[in-house]
Amino acid sequence: MKNSFFIFLIFSLVASCNVEPRRPILRKSSSGIEQSVTLNKKIIAQQESDFNKIIKRDSLNVYIASDLGFWYTFNYKSEASYFPKNEDEVVYSFEVYNLNYDIIYTQEEIGIRNYIVDKQEIIEGLREGLKLMNVGDIATFLFPSHKVFGYLGDQKKIGINQPLIYKVQLIKINKKNESN
Length: 180
Hints:
Chitinase A, domain 3; 7-stranded antiparallel sheet; 4 helices; 23% strand; single chain; alpha+beta
């Protein structure tokens, strides 16, 4: 009798636990993604238009459209022919301007920087731009916002989706090994 009571109790517990789990509610969010894509395309198109105006006004320099999504010109091109490679250490300085050439960060505020190529984190545009330079070069880069601080800005002086002008000087390249 005692055994049948326990069997009945176990059977009733198992039978009562046969509850179907709740399923998540599926919502289509593609409209939010489509809106984001459309907004980003408009932002990029506007920034490209602004850069084209800057390039047209600056008739003294020839700007090169990078395959990486930014424009650049050399203010001074050295005779050196070695470009930074993976794990080389580069020493550089730079200044940051808005599109009206109002200075945002001076070289004195930023100081001299060191960067180990492809091994340390720096903004994408600068990381790609330094690889185009030789020791002694001074270049001006026109970076769209997605190549610098994007939709967050730097939360100090650089605003949301703000395209920037960087004037960069490559001071020194410390090669990882001399066979480079």
